[in-house]
């Protein structure tokens, strides 16, 4: 009953005209930030903190939260239309979303992305409302060993399912881990593999790598086609912009599963929307009756990850509000905003400032509705980008990419890094090496290394710590299964076909 009372009081705060305006403003700015590669919600929120100084803390935090989950909506737009994820968590959307656009179903991909984001975002907020405090105790059970095995499982799962060759996927994973080690060693303070380049001391920026591997690589590939006399095709739309009944039926279950996966992963501090999207994609491909369709324009490969990376935002608010622990970059910036306003997130926050907490939570219900209203009418406008001739679109993609890379730190040297990754992505495409495992390794490599070191320090160098709890044992077993499946499935299929032939 107390929770219901708090929810009602929260809506009385969220529905105030000033807070409705800041909810809309946050959602609108978040969508734009998500569309523009290289900025991301963390930078967007950070830029707004000085502007919000002196504002009502509740209104300011409502706007910041709107930017956080609004960016997830916007990040899918460029991922689908021009194969460039606007936000890190939209990386998995490129795999099937862009292929759908090339097949003339860009409108359907954008529509399912918007609907999945709305439904899963609502699932996440409901979970935040009902389970914030209970789920905190589960998150606290994750130590360095549990985080290491979770990330190891994510890598093995993606490596085993990405591409046609497990060996090539493993090459991509290892290269990504090698690149992730570049920079200052946090324990020794010594530079690693920087080759005397000062810009490499902070490591290779994730956005730089992603923009290069996806967007710039696509430009290089199109340029090669043009030199062969093959004119870049104008992607045409087929049928209506909206989803067909068959596409919707295929999307419903992935959306629901992705919403649940995203929220659970979001509760784990440090996991993030990218991991949620990857695990959702892996799960959908694993249970699909037609896994070979993934990577060629399967709508499930858009619905699941988009649902996961949006419900993750609500999950990430759980450790922030209940423990004062940020789950990622955006929530870390929001934690700084809380402290700036003299508010300490944690268990006492729900007692001392229920108006702020529940007003913020309830504003997320309203924000999801606003984002749906904002995004659905714009689908027709967005898909018009597909009618731009390739000779114009490719330079435009290159311009957006370089601006996005340069805007991160304002360092022209990073443009060269982007081009290097572009060449790498182009070569990968030519030799059929999947990019997704490398991207995942770049995201998780640094965190995974630190978790491993912390776990080994705690155990005094005893590796038994990685099988020392039910969580770690389960994750290690799942990792082993992921590695074995690519080799077992073909044999199992051949055995079944042989048994069927004998019966016939």
Round the Cα radius of gyration to an integer and report it.
Answer: 22 Å
Strand order of the largest sheet: 1-2
The SSE string, one letter per element, is: HHHHHHHHEEHHHHHHHHHHHH
What's the shape? Answer: globular
Sheet with most strands:
2 strands, antiparallel
Number of folding domains? Answer: 1
Q: What portion of the residues fall into strands of 2 or more residues?
A: under 5%
In helices, the fraction of residues equals over 70%
Mean pLDDT: 78
Q: What's the oligomerization state?
A: single chain
Number of helices: 20
N-to-C CA distance: 63 Å
Structural class: mainly alpha
Low-confidence stretches: none
The count of DSSP E runs of length 2 or more, i.e. the number of strands, is 2
Keywords:
504 residues, 2 strands
Description:
The chain has helices spanning about 1-15, 15-35, 40-50, 55-80, 90-100, 105-140, 145-160, 165-180, 205-225, 245-265, 270-285, 300-325, 330-340, 350, 355-375, 380-385, 390-410, 415-430, 435-460, 470-504; strands at about 185, 190. By secondary structure, the chain is mainly alpha-helical. Strand 1 (about 185) and strand 2 form a beta hairpin. Helix 8 packs across helix 19. It is globular and about 65 Å long. It starts with a helix and ends with a helix.
